[in-house]
Amino acid sequence: MSFSIGIWENYKTVWLEINKINISNISLIVSASLFVTCFISIGLILIFKKFNMLLLIRISLIIRAVSFLSMIISFNHPIGWIKILSFFLETISINLIILSIYPLITQKLKSSKIYSHRKLIEYLCTDIGILIAGGIIAFKLAGFFEYNILAIAALIFTIACIPITFLFKSDNSEKNIKFKAIFKDKIANIYLVYYFIQNIAYNIALGLMTLLLKNLLGLPINYISIFLLASYILGDVFGYLALYKLNFKKDYISYSCKFVLRLVLYVLIAITGNFYVAIVGIFLSLFVSRAWENVSDGVYINRINKENQLAFANIRYGIGKLGMAIGILISGQLFKFGIRAIFACSSAVMVVSISLAFYLMYLRKKESERLKTLESAENEVKQECIENEENEAQIKN
Length: 397
Fold this sequence. Notes:
The protein is mainly α. It is built from 16 helices and no strands.
């Protein structure tokens, strides 16, 4: 599935631009599709008390395939609503697929490292998709290129996924959802607020990244493909190193390397507006974005028991997509003011998200200390009971 995402995701906004839709309207279309995704992902859980993850994935794959067929047929067609509706359905379906994957995995394995490992595999395969897209885009130089080819390639990988899903078996995909078990966790609730704000900050800056690189920084589309591929592949390598070789004892250090560094780079872009500073800043932001997923997200997601993982995933993705929608909407409106305005706004929002993240780590530390104290007290009581039993045995003897 990630091959298909890599081929299409970075170029879908350019597909809309080729169809004579301006950037402001593109941001509205993308934002609207994400708003709908938000309500569907949360609504599915509210409407259905039981849910089958594999069925959701299969239905979404079919909808995505039909959407691509519609987009391919309607390319350069004068009826605009067909394009927009197809774009809506493709965006919604891919997000429903993504949100179902990790809850399915948790039925077999559940840990922060497994979450991070899954994300890194997803990233790596997405990069292979970008490489395939880069090869397709290279044909532009020979005059054989059309953006529809990207949609066709993404469609092929989407169709290939459908029979593969029948190799899976879900042990307990239908479970009664207990919302009280999700929302009684204070740390998980604050994490959802953090995740919402963090998505706004990221997508103000890079939600329309391909258009930003193309229209504001003037990079040709084939250079953009090379830039994204280099950033992401090097980011994958660094992500594995961060997971297995750079596991700092304190999460504060890991998080600072990932997000505080990004904030510093965004501030530099906002101050200078220089082309080379922007390229370096965006590259390093993408480079570190794939590291320490276990620290930034996995540790909070795994607080929820596996019976409620799909419900929490839907709520989290719904909130995340709402943040993305707001971020992309703001980004589209700031395009006319230039790159400095975009990154200044993103930096301001990021300060809030980073503050929440450090507060979450503080709460987790206090919780860990409290649990250690309780465990120590329990051990003392158990030891005292053992000693009392030994004394009673001696007295009887």
